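Why show two proteins at once? Because comparison is the fastest way to build intuition. When a single record is shown, students tend to memorize it. When two are placed side by side, the eye starts asking what differs. So, the first record is below.
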Amino acid sequence: MDRLTSLSVFGKVVECGGFTAAARRLNMSVTMVTTHVQSLEERLGVRLLNRTTRKVSLTETGKFYYDRSAQILADLDEADRAASALTTTPRGVLRLASTAAIVRFLLPVMDEFMQLYPSVTLDLGVSERMVDMVEDGYDLAIRTVPLSDNSLIVRKLTPWRHILVCSPSYLEQHKTPATLADLAALDCTRYTYYPYGDEWTFENETGERSGVKVSGSMVTNSAETLRYLALNGRAVSLAPSFLVSDDLAEGRLVPLLPEYRGVEFAINAVYPNKSHLPTKVRLFIDLLVDRFAEHRKWMT
């Protein structure tokens, strides 16, 4: 008998709790259902189900076999759907969530995607908080800090680090820090969602970590606010490299304590753990990965 059909029938018997119920669900005779299960048992040389007049239950071996075969069948279904999706024109609404600091890097990708796939409508939500992907109905989120939800799938786009910076005018009014400890006496603006709180954390050339507790006149969830204060000589900032790379290159900001570097993070594409990723989401992620590869200069 066909092995895959027998696996499917066996799984339906387990899920329905009996041969008769499985037969009704499969539109198959009880005799045929029984034959499929017996064929599997004979092939394996083990009993998969305990049968009584009232109910059917899995044996220990049957439970192991059901768990593995269910995953195999799910993988086959996923392969079928994925192959079909390759030839399906993406359409509908693609809901995206992003932080404000990286919208300017997303916009060229979104523009290109809309030109490539005009049947897809992009819906972009901008927020510093990590949205609930399922509850809020988002297909994809682009995040810059680590996630607390391990159920989400993460696709790395590009690494980045924090850079300790201030404006030249700030150094005209304050002594240049020579050690990490000197930062404790300076006005240090802080990002609300910085993973280490008010302890700025760094790595030296050997990867050894050290930190210093800082304080200052501003705590905010807006990275652009921190950049503004740094540019205007108001404070020292531990800034994302992608936010201030141009400012550093053009001299509007200067790096401090270059022997220390911020801990490595990544800009990630994040999406729910679904058995079937819609074509429009997969194509947008692929385009993100390709375009954000150009931004890895942020690490240097």
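Second record. Ask yourself what differs from the first in the token line.
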Amino acid sequence: MQFQSLKFERDQTIARVTLNRPERLNALDGRLIEELSAAARLIDAEPGIRAVLLGAAGRAFCAGADLAEDRVDEAVPAARAAAVAARLRDALNPMASAWFRLRAPLVVAVNGIAAGAGASLALCGDIVVAGRSAAFAQLFAPKLALMPDLGGTFHLPRLVGAARAKGLALLGDPLPAAEAAAWGLIWACVEDSELLARTEAIARRLADGPTQAHQRIKTVFNEPASRTFELQLEREAVLQAELAGTGDFTEGLRAFREKRPPRFEGR
């Protein structure tokens, strides 16, 4: 397959996938979502791939969903809500699930900002390493009057606990990489200049390790007894659709397009 919005490279037992929309801070548009799904299928179809390294080109890992391509009529909340739910269920959620459920261990190298759905995508990794200048931000509520999706409400409380998860989701303050590592959100924070070498070394170590054991470790950790990832994705889709019908989301979209701070009224 020919990819346009990402780079896919195979180095013997390692697959390297690089988000490649640097001019848009690697925001998730329809094409990138489709290509990420295709890359995951390609990886799972190749038993010789024993580790995966996901990174990004440019100065950001991923700025979240690309709102610039959202052309849903603001004046019809019901239509907008249906469109948001359809996009989550038909495109974003299957892509996130495919990356979370990858057969091979997934190492994620986070450079710059990982915001919104971009942070959720990063947290699909089994081992997440961030450069010191990187940060994770849940901008849904303070910027768009929405809630975390793409598995964010699944990952955050499992990794940092309910109190910190709710604070991140409600306030949306960026969490610097060093603090993210201290909280247990990610595996490690390294100097920016060391990010590529460190993640390459981890991916090589995993690729050279016990593949069957790795697969079963992933299975055990990814299937908690309380709620599966897919059930959480569906719950997010229902609640996100409700939020997409609100006046505050309308204001968030307008503010984004007009390049000004949003003025939410709680509607």
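One difference worth noting in the second protein: The beta strands are 6-11, 14-19, 51-56, 106-110, 113-115, 127-131, 135-137, 175-176, 188-190.
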